[in-house]
Structure formats: C-alpha cells, structure tokens
Predict the structure.
Amino acid sequence: MDSSTIFPVRGNLHPDGLYFTYMLVGSPPQPYYLDFDTGSDLTWIQCDAPCTSCAKGANAWYKPRRGNIVPPKDLLCMEVQRNQKAGYCETCDQCDYEIEYADHSSSMGVLATDKLLLMVANGSQTKLNFIFGCAYDQQGLLLKTLVKTDGILGLSRAKVSLPSQLASQGIINNVIGHCLTTDVGGGGYMFLGDDFVPRWGMAWVPMLDSPSMEFYHTEVVKLNYGSSPLSLGGMESRAKHILFDSGSSYTYFPKEAYSELVASLNEVSGVGLVQSTSDTTLPLCWRANFPIRSVKDVKKFFKTLTFQFGTKWLVISTKFRIPPEGYLMISDKGNVCLGILDGSKVHDGSTIILGDISLRGQLVVYDNVNKKIGWTPSECAKPKRSDSLQFFDGLPFFDG
C-alpha cells in the first residue's frame, strides 16, 4: 500500500461555485468531470439507463451494459441502502439508491461497476473494479452544476466512497488531501494516498470517530472574530462540531455565531463601506466609494476569524485561521460580499461547516488511518514532494 494518485482540480468559487476533477471510467476509458466532495459517500455519474432527468453534462452520459449492474446481495449495496428510507431490497434485480443533499436537490439511480483507470505517482497505470452510482434522475439545483460536470466524486469515510474502495483493495492508504488555490481563476489539486502528506509543518486535530459519522468532523472550543469571541451556543464550556466539506461552496455558522458576526461587521460601515441592498449575490454585500478589484482592496477593514481546537489554553491549542480572503468574495457588481451564511437550516443546524471559500490556500488532509484532520498554508500550485513534480506536470488536464 505505497501508491498515491494525484488529480488536477478545476473550478472556482464564483461564478461556478464548484471545484471538479476528472476520472477515466470504462473500457475503453472515458473521461468524466466530477465535483469532488468530502461530504458525499457515493460517487455517481450521469447515466443513460435511460436518463429520466439529466443535464447535458460536460461529457457523454455513461452507458452501462447489463453486466455492469451491481446485484442487491453485494456488500456495498447493503451499505448504501442501509441508511435509505426504503431500506435493503433482497428481492430486487438491481441495487437502487437515492441521495438527497442539503439544498434538497437529489440523485437517483442504480449501482454499477466498471474499470477505473488510475495513474499512480510512480507514473504507472492501474485498472481496478470500482462501484459507483449510475444516475438517471437528478432534481433541483444540482442540475445547474451538471452543465460543467458529469456527477459527484464521493470522498467521505463511508465504505462505498472512492478512497475506502481503493484502500480495501490494497491500492492506497486511506488518506485524502486537497489544495484549492486562492487565485481568481481557481483550480488546485487533490490526492489519494499518503505519499504527498508533508512530514512537517502540519497542524493536526483528532477526527470525531463514531459509526454514524461518515463526515469529517472535529470539535472547536473557541471562535473569535479578531479578538472578539463569537458564541458557540449552549453552555460556555461546550465544544462545537465543525465539518470540513469540499462539496459546499460557502461556510455556514450556527445562528448565534452568525448573528454575532454580522453585528460585528456593522463596524465596516464607518470606514467607507455601505451595505448594498440591491446586490443579491449573497445575503450581505457592501459597496465602496472606490472601485473594488479584489478582496485585497478591502481586507484592511475586516479581521481574521480564528478557530481554536483542543483546549482553550492558547499555548497548547491548535488554531485554524481564516483571513478576510477566506470569507469574502467580489460580486459581479463589484461589491464585496460575506461568504459565511446562516447555517441554522443546514445539516443539523448547530454544526459549523467549512466550505470551499475558507479551505482555499490550505493543503487539507483527512487521514482515515490515524483518524485525524490536518492543514498547512499553501499556494496549491503543486504537491510538495519534489519527486512528484514531474508526474504532476505530465498529467493530462482538461480540454476547453
């Protein structure tokens, strides 16, 4: 288990609101662009099975053969159907799935199996059997993102996720990393396996471990805007769950913390920024009496957000800092907008969700072997290990 594989990442926070990579699936291998999502279990590709409700997609729909359909008795089928309303169906001819996402969009289909072609870090190629969703019915906002992509790449801790499948076949150690650049053009890279995890300079926190938790959770004990604490809700001593979610464009705070942050941001009105009610890009936007070309032009008016993990004692705690560039964005109207939203109706309503806007400029690693989450600041241009650079430069990227 000494292999790792790197995937180039395309996308941006605005206007697309998603980051995606590509995979080569089938015989002969066909490319599919997938929104990489640490908050999703199942990888699925739009599929002509036939398609009931599918978007055009970036590539031709996957066309399954009868032999590609996964039978209900397969262990991963039982795993996928375990959490579904209808439950496991032993008498069915195929393994049906249905997923509903936080924005109430959904994907429905059957499980399929086919060859996945991977390039590993030593430059060799490996083909392996891979189980994924053959998606023939998508509903809701999801259909908009499927203009540029063909589906979702599930990277959670669930047994059906891509890294879990690769680890169970002895191809990689179950470690995931991603790095999204802060450049306006977006992009970056992600990797599976532990060859590209820096040996020093990483901050690590323990992953919350529970059979029912397949997301990447940890606990935060303190949250500050500048030097001002924001409420985590409940008792003062109570830690709050925080979720790292690459499938979410923006960051979400529980209601109390969000309200206190918005109240703290009222102070920017006294320094030349005025709230814009006509800009509906995000709930809170400000205009200035000078042209705003990037967040750098206005960052001096805002403060750094600091998450503190482990203990409230500053000397021995671990911190994740989000500068203004990690929670602000420039709208098409040239205003600066707050990329932190009210999360009271997202997930369980009380969890902090770190989305792409706040994960940019950081190499984030999910180590499922040692059950910990780590990060270190990075420009996200290339993986850090020098022997990987030639491999990364030689990767085929995206057309268009």
